[in-house]
Write a structure and sequence with these properties.
Nucleoside Triphosphate Pyrophosphohydrolase; single chain
Length: 142
């Protein structure tokens, strides 16, 4: 029997002065496609969602993230087909400095993307986060 898990994660919505999103192209041998997505990761038990966002952005880009607003919550089942359910807090904010790829073993690339030029193969969490930004709603179903 497969153990069912519920995990909490964060997605950091970071835009530059040209309104481009900071995106990552993932490397994941467990996924068929190397998804593009917003900076994201799992929350640790000893941190709140804003601290998790700050840590993940620093780990992945080497920049300080300054959370400004929680813009929503998204929920989805793991895209790899296992029995993990995710609740993800979407946090918008700014960074200091120029982002780099601090984990090249996990990411092919970190770059800025215009909203009208986003790749087709977006990670499910990113698709949901962008949906709530577009709708200006706290949850995709609202």
């Amino acid at each position: 029997m497969t153990e069912e898990l519920c995990r909490v994660g964060i997605v950091a919505v970071i835009r530059d002065e040209n309104n481009r999103f900071l995106m990552e192209k993932r490397k994941n041998p467990e996924e068929e496609d190397n998804y593009w997505g917003l900076i994201a990761g799992g929350k640790k038990a000893d941190e709140n969602s804003l601290e998790a966002a700050e840590r993940e952005v620093m780990e992945e880009t080497g920049t300080d993230f300054h959370p400004e607003e929680i813009v929503g919550i998204v929920e989805h089942n793991d895209q790899r087909g296992d029995s993990t359910s995710w609740t993800v807090v979407v946090v918008e904010g700014a960074i200091n400095g120029e982002p780099g790829n601090m984990e090249p073993e996990k990411r092919e690339e970190i770059t800025w993307k215009k909203e009208d030029e986003l790749p087709d193969n977006l990670h499910p969490t990113t698709e949901l986060a962008l949906d709530i930004l577009e709708k200006d709603a706290m949850h995709p179903e609202l």
